[in-house]
Design a protein that fits this description.
The chain is an alpha/beta fold. It is 41% helix and 16% strand. It is built from 6 helices and 5 strands. A 5-stranded parallel β-sheet has the order 1-5-4-2-3. The protein is globular and about 55 Å long. It starts with 5 loop residues before the first helix and ends in a 6-residue tail after the last helix. Mean pLDDT is 85; it is low at 9-28.
């Protein structure tokens, strides 16, 4: 029986990998990443979660945001009772922690999560603060 060479299998593996990656992420993902202006416009129509530390939150935050620190050991426990069917907007200082939180929420079954990115960009785009 003829065995295909590794060189002949390489294109097939690339196609298979691309297909698997598209199935795992892509347009079916629960996480949306809009522009800062679009995210700022969503503030009044979504549950807003500030995923920074309590000290950062106390220094100022988007109006109406609740604080759930993504780097705290109990993040998963704190998001567990939230309505998985509600619409959420998560943000942090620069966008790194909001991406982590949004991915964790999507993995936990949340259906509509927007990664709002960094607070400075949201405020510059018009998001109200308190």
């Amino acid at each position: 029986m003829h065995r295909p060479s590794r060189r002949a299998l390489a294109p097939l593996l690339v196609v298979l990998l691309a297909t698997l990656l598209a199935a795992c992420g892509g347009s079916g993902s629960a996480v949306k990443i809009p522009s800062a202006a679009d995210a700022a416009g969503m503030v009044g129509s979504r549950v807003v979660i500030d995923v920074r530390t309590p000290a950062e939150y106390a220094a100022g935050h988007i109006a109406g945001a609740q604080n759930i620190d993504v780097e705290a050991a109990d993040f998963a426990t704190k998001i567990a009772p939230l309505d998985k069917g509600a619409a959420y907007l998560v943000y942090c200082r620069s966008g790194r922690r909001s991406a982590i939180a949004a991915d964790q929420m999507a993995s936990a079954g949340f259906k509509d999560v927007v990664d709002g990115g960094g607070m400075d960009a949201l405020v510059a785009a018009g998001a109200p603060t308190e």
